[in-house]
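Following up on my earlier thread - several people asked me to post the actual chain instead of describing it. Fair enough. Here it is, all 364 residues.
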Amino acid sequence: MPIKVQIKKKLDSFLLDMEFQSESRRIGILGASGCGKSMTLKCIAGIETPDEGHIEVEGRTLFDRENRTDLKPQKRNVGYLFQNYALFPTMTVEKNIAAGLKGTRREKEARVREMMRKFQLKGLGKRLPVQLSGGQQQRVALARIMAYEPDVILLDEPFSALDMYLRDRLQQELMEMLADYKGTVVMVSHNRDELYRFSEEMVVIDEGHVAAAGETKELFQNPVSREAARLTGCKNFSRIRRVDAHTAEAADWGVTLHTEREIPEDVQWFGYRAHDFVPVWGERGENMLRFDLESTALLPFERNYYLRPERHGDDGECGGVQPICWFVQREKIEELDSRGMPDHVMFREEKLLFLKDQCFHKRL
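Reply from S.P.:
Thanks for posting it. Predicted structure:
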């Protein structure tokens, strides 16, 4: 078991109550800002101490409140990549990489040269961090971590301060640099696209609790809880009134939907992603919503349409009517321009999400 975490820690506004374990080597933790993601990493690294619980990495117990085990950070063999990379500002690249290395001077110098070569830092050894680009700083910080071969690397929002172009390029660089690393990597982010690209398995957290967890691609297809669906990008939600195993009224959308799949009795919400609607011209068929346009947003590579529900009152999810989002990507816009707005949009049954208010999955 590469990693097992079961901790509780009282924070200012909520209780951090994290429990997950995984056999995967690439794990993502997704959640909004302030939900406890970074605190979870700090507890694993030993920077913060949980109030209770147990942390285990590669079969080694790092923390166990009951047995009074609490290894110091330098004894945990955990590499932590901070958001700002935390390089020593008055030390050169070479000295930053060598910081924390043990062994003879010759052994340290050899290891630094190896890391400089591996992370493409040739010619930068004598520079200070302020003389480096954001990408170079990230490579130095990762080289410093990899130099002492940790059991686990923790990445704390590593791309949050970068612009979109640089973020995309550095994501790819990071994946390439970690390709031959045999240890476990845990990355936290509020960016679902980053974690979809990076992680094999993912934990979704909401205000310190696990909202859902599992294999990353499966979790996007079937997020199980409404909060997990929202955090993975779903825009449309409706409370349901179950008629039978294959029929339910979508109360907030004003339509009745029929499904081949059985609708479980404990499902409370339908979810539907904004890109999955199918435009329909002509007569209305099953599982369709009347196209009643409220507003439009024109973006560089897509158009966002906001539709009025068919029936509604003032008891919506946020105390009022929530528009239904339909996002049309560039390759489909030409059809709309040539044919005009559709008469209806259709829900694809296989894309309909069955959701509960909350669901805690702890084992990945």
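Residues 105-118 form the longest helix (14 residues). That should answer part of your original question.
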